[in-house]
Amino acid sequence: MSFRSYKDVLKYYMRSERANLQGLENSPYRGRKGQVYVEFVPTRTKLINAFLEAGRILGHPTVDYNAPEKLGFGYVQTTTRSGHRYSVAKAFLHNHKGRRNLHILPSSIVTKVLIDPTSKTAHGIQYVRNHLKYDVRVRKEVILSAGPIASPQLLMMSGIGPKENLNTVGIPVINDLPVGRNLFDHIAFPGIIFKLNTTDVSFIEEKGATLQNILEWLQFGEGILASPGGVEGIGYIKTSVSDDPEEVPDIELISIGGSLVSDGGPHGSKAARRGMMISENVFDKAFGVIDNTDTWSAFPMLLHPKSKGYLELKDNNPFSYPKIYGNYLTDQKDVRTLIAAIRHVITLSETEPFQRLGAKLHRADYPACRGLVFDSDAYWECAIRTLTATLHHQIGTCRMGPVSDPAAVVDPELRVYGVQNLRVVDTSIIPRTTSAHTNAPGIMIGEKAADMIRSTWKNG
Ligand SMILES: Cc1cc2nc3c(=O)[nH]c(=O)nc-3n(C[C@H](O)[C@H](O)[C@H](O)COP(=O)(O)OP(=O)(O)OC[C@H]3O[C@@H](n4cnc5c(N)ncnc54)[C@H](O)[C@@H]3O)c2cc1C
C-alpha cells in the first residue's frame, strides 16, 4: 500500500468524490458516491469562453483537468453543493457527528504529543481548553492532522525535529529529524490585468452585491455569489523554460472573470487586495486608474518552484507562531518561468476572442519598478517580486519518503521515523509539489491513510 503511482492514488480521489459535472457523467476518472460534492460553477461570464477559445487557438485543448490529461484548459470545478461551499468539515465531520466513536472537542488546542523518551512511543496528546490543560491517552496510536504548519510545529514541540532548533528553544530532543525543512508553496502573480472596451462582461462586486443576487444565491445557489472569487477557468501549460522531459505543466493559469480591481470602488470590499496583503499605496499607484472597471486577468501560478523554504520554532510556547521562511523566488528559474507565463497570457489576450472584447494590457506603475522599461524582463521581474501572492498550498514539512531519504520525516505508511505509534496524515507529508491545488490531495491522503490504519489494527 503506497502513494507511488497515479493508479495507487486514483481510487482514493474517486472514493471521496461525489462529482456532479455536466458532460463528464461517464468519465471513468471521476467518483460519484463519495462525500465531497464537486460541481462546475453555475454562473459564467463571456471571459471564460474567450479563455477557452483563445487556449484552443494556441494549441491548448479544452479538457477535464481532473483527469489524466496533464496539459489543457478547462472550466473551474469547485467543492460545492448546489452553489454553496462544501468543506471537508461538512463532509467528514458534520455529517458524522452522531457516531459513538467520534468525539469532537471544539475550541481545543493541542499543545504537544506525549512521547515516552525511553521507549520513543507516543501514548497520547496534551491539549488546552478554556485555559485548562488536559492529557488524553491513546490505546493504539496518535494521528496528527494539524496541517502543513501546525503538524511540524507540534512534532517539534514534542521533541521531534532538527536538534539545533530544539536545543536553541530548550526542548529535549527525542528524535533528530528534518521536520519543517522541506517547505514548498505555490505562488502566483495577480498583476497581469487587461482593460476591456466592453462593459458588463466581467464580475464587478459593487454591481453584483444586491439583495436580489443574495436571495438568488441563498434560494437557488446561482448568480454572481456562486462564483468562487471570480475564478472561472484553469489552464495547465508547459513553458519554454521547463526542462522536464515529460509533458508536465510548470504553470497553472487561473482565469478570472475580472481581476484584482473588481471588488474596488468606494463601497467595494477590496477583499482580493487585502487577502493578498497588497498595500493600499502600491495598489492605488499600480491599478488606481482602472479600479472598479471591466477587466480580465489570468494569474500564473508556479507549480513546481525550485525555491525551497523552511519553518522552525520561535520559542517553546505552543501558542507562539512558528517562524516561516518562504524563500520565494530565491531560485532565478522560478522568476524566468513566471515571466514566460506572463508572456503567454499576453499572447492569449492578443487572440481574436479577447480582441473582440477589446482586451488591452494595463501598464501598472509599481513604485518599486519606476525607471524600468515597461514589458521588459526586468520590469516583469520587479512586478513579480512586488506582487507575490501565496495560494496557501504549503506542503512537505513532514515529508514522506523511504528510509534512505535524508529529508524524510514519515515513512510510506505515514509513521514518524524512530517513534512508535505516531502518524502524520495531512498535506505536510506531500514530498514534492503537485500540478494541482492541495485540497483534493489532502482528502486523498486522508482516505488512503484510513485504509492503512485499518490494515494496521485489523487484528485488534
Ligand atoms: C485562504 C486559503 C485558500 C485556499 N484555497 C484553496 C483552493 O481554492 N483549492 C485548494 O485545493 N486548496 C486551497 N487551499 C489549500 C487547502 O485548503 C489546504 O492545502 C488544505 O486545507 C490542507 O489540508 P490539511 O488537512 O493538511 O490542513 P488543514 O486544512 O489546515 O487542517 C488542519 C486542521 O488542524 C487544526 N489545527 C491546527 N493546529 C491545531 C492544534 N494545535 N490543535 C487542534 N487543532 C489544530 C486546524 O484548525 C485545521 O482544522 C487554500 C488554503 C487557504 C489558507
From TrEMBL:
Glucose-methanol-choline oxidoreductase N-terminal domain segment(s): 147-161
Keywords noted in UniProt: FAD, Flavoprotein
Needed co-factor(s): FAD
Keyword Nucleotidyltransferase: no
UniProt keyword annotation of Flavoprotein present: yes
Active-site residues (renumbered): 393, 437
One term of GO molecular function: oxidoreductase activity, acting on CH-OH group of donors
Domain of life (superkingdom): Eukaryota
Pfam families, alphabetized: GMC_oxred_C, GMC_oxred_N
Transmembrane residue ranges: none
Chain sites annotated for binding FAD: 110
PANTHER family from the UniProt entry: GLUCOSE-METHANOL-CHOLINE GMC OXIDOREDUCTASE, RE36204P-RELATED
Similarity field: Belongs to the GMC oxidoreductase family.
Protein name stated in the entry: Glucose dehydrogenase
Organism for this UniProt entry: Eumeta variegata
Gene that this polypeptide is encoded by: Gld
